[in-house]
Amino acid sequence: xxxxxxxxxxxxxxxxxxxxxxxxxxxxxxxxxxxxxxxxxxxxxxxxxxxxxxxxxxxxxxxxxxxxxxxxxxxxxxxxxxxxxxxxxxxxxxxxxxxxxxxxxxxxxxxxxxxxxxxxxxxxxxxxxxxxxxxxxxxxxxxxxxxxxxxxxxxxxxxxxxxxxxxxxxxxxxxxxxxxxxxxxxxxxxxxxxxxxxxxxxxxxxxxxxxxxx
Length: 214
Known about the structure:
Low-confidence stretches: 208-214
Oligomer: single chain
Mean pLDDT: 88
């Protein structure tokens, strides 16, 4: 008797997020009920702290987040599921949404004009967790191969600067805190990963004779 393969939690997250986003575009009331809006949270609508991650502003926003989630989430699912199980993997993703939006909530909690949406915080958690494991793997940014660790450094610098200047309607704080959560979670799960990450970083320099270790 054949058995079905276990369901990919990454694909399930992509499918649910895509379905909810499509429904929210069709039904504005659902969109308004899920988007992060400080007065709503203050009134006890705590689901907005997670619900905002299942809706997106447009097709490009949704497509970019879901492609990124699929490619890096599938790798991290293989890494994490043996340690924390499928439910633990989903909770890691959901906690990425929560951790990423909390600093924004603390800053904007009295601002009725502020809104935020999108899965970028949780996706950043997946991305940075992956970079921690494979810092020198190549990421294709607009079809240009870039070492993952260099992309991470540039991404952090850009997000800090963009957050300071503002004006682009992007919640860069959520990207930064989501990425930080991905790294912090991995270090909590496997403290020895910090030393492994350091060795991965210096390995190319050691191979080229750039660093001498006794």
